[in-house]
Amino acid sequence: MKVFETRINRTLLCQWLGLPRSVYYYQPQLGKAGAKPSQMTLKLNGTWVDNQQVVSSIRDLLNVEFNALGYEYITHELKKEYVINKKKVYRLMRENNLLLGKVIQPTGKREFVKFKRIEATKPLEYLCWDIKYVWVQGERRNYYLLSVMDVYSRKILAWVFQKSIRQIDLIDLLRQVNRNHDLKGVILRNDNGSQFIAHSVRNFLRSCEVKQEFTHVATPEENSYIEAFHSILEHDVIERNEFDSYYEAKEMLERYFFHYNQHRLHRSIGFVTPQQKWEGTEVVYATTFSENLSS
Length: 295
Hints:
The protein is α/β, with parallel strands linked by helices. Helix content is 40%, strand content 15%.
């Protein structure tokens, strides 16, 4: 049409080609169809704020222990401060990877381990964590055990045992550790399980200033410390007992974790208990600090 339009009427050209005249004037648009979503949100006090402030409010609601909330619950809470509907809340949560129950499609660069062996020099320098199946014979099903270990002392700092391990369970467990020990600057090693690569977990770790390391695929030896603990647990507890119920298994695990931390000698840390290694280092650091102050 461009070639002949200077010599022949456009209407006639369209008739020859069997096309509506409107097709000639159509200009393709880049991006999604329809109006662009608003970038501002109205508050109940009559002021307008950027949508990122709404996202921050959503994160605050989710960043509370046990608050595994969907977009409808979040909408209910936001309406106490904003003029907003659930469609907009859903869009903002989807765009910022805050929705629950979605298939995890990780994006962004993952920091993979550079050294197979960790050379920890003090407590809370390196942590590692992983999930293990525990078979409960009486219920004919597996339950899941998630444990967090301090690499230097081999002490189990926290654990959870339940039917399933969700992203919020990992975050709650880390909150528990963070309340007892400041995690800022800690390096945390894990495999590439769906829970560990989840956006919500990675974002929480970044907010705590924890550096997350991922093992390479099919290399459990890169997370050998927690894998070794699971082997010990298998030998000492799981292979020697048949659990009739979840509660029986949980009660025995609770007793074993206390025994492991407080009484079981660990060869790789010099035939002392994890608790002794943990406390001994803390005492040494405290003494050195006091001596430096005196001098």
